[in-house]
Amino acid sequence: MLCEQLDEDDNHLFFNCSYTKQLMDFSANGIHPSNWRSLLGDNFLNNIEIVRKSKANFDLMCFLWWTIWGHRNNKIFKNSNIANTNTPAILAINTYNAWSAEFKINQKSGSGTGHRPLIAWDKPPKDIMKINFDGSSKQNGVSQIDFIFRDNSGCPKYIHSARINHTTALQAEASALLACVRATAHVGIKKIIVEGDNLTIINDVNGLWRLPWSIKDTIEDIRDVLKTFEYYKLDHCFREGNRAADFLASKFNESITSICNPMLREFHTIIRQDVLGYTFARRIV
Fold first, then answer.
1. Which of 51, 146, 235, 252 has the fewest CB neighbours in a 10 Å radius?
2. Residue 53 pLDDT more than 70?
3. At a CB cut-off of 8 Å and minimum separation 6, what does 228 contact?
4. Tens digit of each residue's pLDDT (9 = 90 or more) over 60-86
5. Which residues contact 5 (CB under 8 A, 6 or more apart)?
6. Does 202 or 93 have the greater pLDDT score?
């Protein structure tokens, strides 16, 4: 489809297409050496295993494949012209580098010594409301959106937890972000910091990444609402800094009505720990 030389299949698109090879060559810097290329064959799964033997290769290749897939879809569904390989390669490399900066532990933080970075929830400045959000989609068919407003004291000002029509985890996260900024705008708050632990959604709204069209409308709605604030900042945080919203998304449900319920006591403990600045070791997954 990209090179118009052969009928498309997964192995041709992601390995043998001339466009793909040019893109990988541009991104090379040791990522696609000749001895590695010579091992590739006609079996897609075998080729995947060859790439997987080098984690650095595999990480970058995933972003290259993501870029190739996007350009392939644009050509099919939007009749777009194929970009010069330099452009998609740079996009993939920049995205890969952003991901690496977020998820790979720098040697200075103790990598290889058993130490892990410590994460805490940070209070916002006095005149700014901070909102943490989360969304979930569970195997039992339940999808949920959750968010919590807190000011400089760290005490909750508003908590929202609601079920939505069953959807994907990514759509649930996007829906949670849209709901929380709409709720904030509705009550007249003008300055906000919004945090979530889904880097994909955060980077898409901030214009760093481009996601599938399935959530494009939701992302555009989020951006439109954010433009109405005097000040806003949309940040990614690790799950250890998003424990209150994560708790609501994973454990809270409509059946919890008693203030003495053990789950609510656990939630109150999380809030107190956040107020006191408790730190938690980053989980490595």
1. 235
2. no
3. 185
4. 777 778 777 877 787 777 777 665 555
5. 17, 18
6. 202
Burial call 90-103: b when 16+ CB within 10 Å, e when fewer? ebbbebbeebeeee
Q: What is the mean pLDDT of residues 241-259?
A: 70
pTM of this prediction exceeds 0.70: no
Task: Answer yes or no: is pLDDT of 103 > 60.
Answer: no
Alpha-carbon distance 5 to 220, whole Å?
37
Minimal CA–CA distance to 134: which of 166, 157, 161? 161
Mean pLDDT of the chain: 77
Structural domains of the chain ordered from first start: 10-104 (no CATH), 119-281 (3.30.420.10)
Nearest to 143 by CA among 126, 120, 162: 162
